[in-house]
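User: Can you help me understand a structure? I only have the sequence.
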Amino acid sequence: MDTKVFAHHDHAACQAEGIAVAAAVCAQKGLRLTPQRRRVLEILLSRHRAMGAYAVLAILRGEGMGNQPPVVYRALDFLVKHGFAHKIERLNAFIACTRPGAPHAPAFLICRTCDTVAEAHIDPGGGTLGDEAGAAGFTIERTVVEALGLCPKCRDAA
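Assistant: Let's start by predicting it. Here is the structure, written out as tokens:
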């Protein structure tokens, strides 16, 4: 589980590591981390909150990097497809992956007050869901788990 977003941490190192891993994975797999894709990932890494495509677009527009939604949607599609970002279904928004390049099944802990999102890791084939699926002869290929609650900071403030 990677819940360091709920605690004080070296955010600059977190961002630098995310970009370095994405660049290395792209180089290894022959993928192009274009300037727009890289910048969208940097924007997602700059926060630990899910961001909608139009919020990302507003930042790009302010930097003169693009003003058309397809630019952002293509970049986000690339990042999600290759495991550098995840879509948070509940919020219709995106967040940088905390384990890019590593196979995993993420689950998201979403603070209902401040919208901070932490990425946890689960075994979709294990536990009650895996047991139920196995009993039904069903093979789980993908899960979307999003838990809504309060982060430590918001819980303590309440």
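Now, to help you interpret it: The mean pLDDT is 86. The first strand starts at residue 85 and ends at 88. Let me know which part you'd like to focus on.
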